[in-house]
Amino acid sequence: MIPILEIKNGTKEYRGIPAVKDVNFTLNPGEVHALLGENGAGKSTLTKMLSGVVEPTKGEVYLNGEKLVMKTPLEALSKGIAMVYQETSLVPSLTVAQNIYLTDDKKFHRLRGIYIAGQQFLQSLNFHVDPTALVSSLGAGQKQMVEIARAVHHKAKVIIFDEPTSTLTPEEKEQFFLLINRLRDQGVSIIFISHALEEALEISDRITVMRDGQHVVTDMTANFTRDKIISAMVGRSLSGEIHGSSQDKKVRIAGEKVLSVQNLSMQNIVRNTSFSVFAGQITGMFGLIGSGRTEAAKVVSGVLKRNLFHGGQVRLNGRSIRYRVPRSAVKDGVIYVTEDRKIEGFFETMSISENIYLGALAGGRTKAKGVNMREMKAIAKQWIDALNVKAINGDARVIELSGGNQQKVVIAKALVQKPKLVIFDEPTRGVDVGAIVEIHNLIDRLADEGIAVLVISSYLPEVLQLSDRILVCRQGRIVEEFEGHKTDEETIMYAAVH
Ligand SMILES: Nc1ncnc2c1ncn2[C@@H]1O[C@H](COP(=O)(O)OP(=O)(O)OP(=O)(O)O)[C@@H](O)[C@H]1O
Ligand SMILES: [Mg+2]
């Protein structure tokens, strides 16, 4: 069988250091091929070579057995190869429909036309996104849906999904898998990158694992198990470390009430919600996308403004607060670790050290007036080691890091501020299984040190694993509260949906 897409001896070097080294990879017609590996293994780089985003340093790409030279993603798209990126590539100032029909010159200029077409098209995919909404107003999950819709719209023969599900809720994931199956039935060939190994096992026909830029193994999915994938990814068995269950977890007793939110409202998204967060405890918040979790957190931390009248009360250690900018919140020790790292998380063209140091300066953690280079390097090194950020050193620019390692920098930048209350919004999105353990340990330690921690997550195992208590959010308000060790996935899901 001639593969529909193939790369032979694919190598990509950055400043002489290989991100991908001599990799052979084939995509067969009509298959779903999962590409797995730790953060920084080279998955995105390999697929970018297959979709015209990155030019290989060495090696050739073949489409249906014919050698292919693509200089741009648009060229690849015209040959039927589409990529849905890990970091969104949408134009934020345009609407959803405009983004989907962006390269459609004939349609693009007739707004009414594309809104009607967009509405029908999105509905056919079962995506609940308003075609007239500005992309900048969407949450991460909805942006991902628009990206997927755009690839499907272009009738691509090959679609590469780089972590498509990390921003989706369980229900949306189910829809997405149905969509993948539909595309496969239509003869579309799919590369699927994910850190959710269960998903890869469930949906793919074949699996390839990469490690340190190199090919480790390719085989039929039926021949893999979760543990087998993990040992291929990390080069050793991690099963004991990763399968930590919430059963044997000690439950922390609530300290003083650090955050108290009463009858908070923001437009129609947060509706009269009330909840508290206590010192020395992890409070988990679960809810579907659109349930107002992120928005409530953003109001508390000064990223968004609450309604002027009847907006409710927010108290920090009993004192009424109303932040207009995140800076004032940070000064008081209230920190929001964003779910949308590309936009709010860091300055992408600055180095890792500079980003972390900016965090330190914002939190008043350093006495230096202006920038103290030595201190900057020392603080950065401490965090790079603590979180195991994979980079040559602290001088690497954040934009050059793999997705999961960027997430670690976002977390470091927040924690260096010595917070009193930390709100993590989807802290392990796009992070590999090993690093999830590291980040979870870190969050646990924060609570042990007496900090009040709120973790917003759409990933139920994460909520259960971390939380001492769990709040469930539905349609803009907290509807139920559980003790962390006394509940299970079904109960929480039921509360979130009904
Ligand atoms: N533009 C760039 N400049 C320099 N180095 C880069 C660049 N892009 C990627 N790299 C490096 O190449 C390596 C592989 O990165 P890549 O993004 O392909 O990993 P990944 O497997 O997709 O990881 P993740 O799961 O975190 O998304 C990393 O060490 C990364 O730092
Ligand atoms: Mg990647």
Bound molecules: adenosine-5'-triphosphate, magnesium ion
Assembly category: single chain
The CATH first-level class of the largest domain comes to Alpha Beta
CATH fold label of the largest domain: Rossmann fold
Radius of gyration: 23 Å
Low-confidence region ranges? 239-246
How would you sum up the major sheet?
6 strands, mixed
Describe this structure in words.
By secondary structure, the protein is an alpha/beta fold. It folds into two domains: 5-239, Rossmann fold; 257-497, 3-Layer(aba) Sandwich (Rossmann fold), CATH 3.40.50. Helices cover 36% and strands 24% of the residues. The chain contains 19 helices and 20 strands. The strands form four sheets. The protein has a six-stranded mixed β-sheet with strand order 6-7-8-3-9-10, with helices on both faces. A six-stranded mixed β-sheet has the order 16-17-18-13-19-20, with helices on both faces. The chain has a four-stranded antiparallel β-sheet with strand order 2-1-4-5. A hairpin with a 2-residue loop joins strand 14 (313-316) and strand 15 (319-320). Helix 14 crosses helix 15 and helix 14 (352-362) packs parallel to helix 16. 48% of the residues are buried. The model is unreliable at 239-246 (pLDDT under 50). Bound molecules: adenosine-5'-triphosphate and magnesium ion. Residues 43-44, 86, 162, 402-403 line the site of magnesium ion.
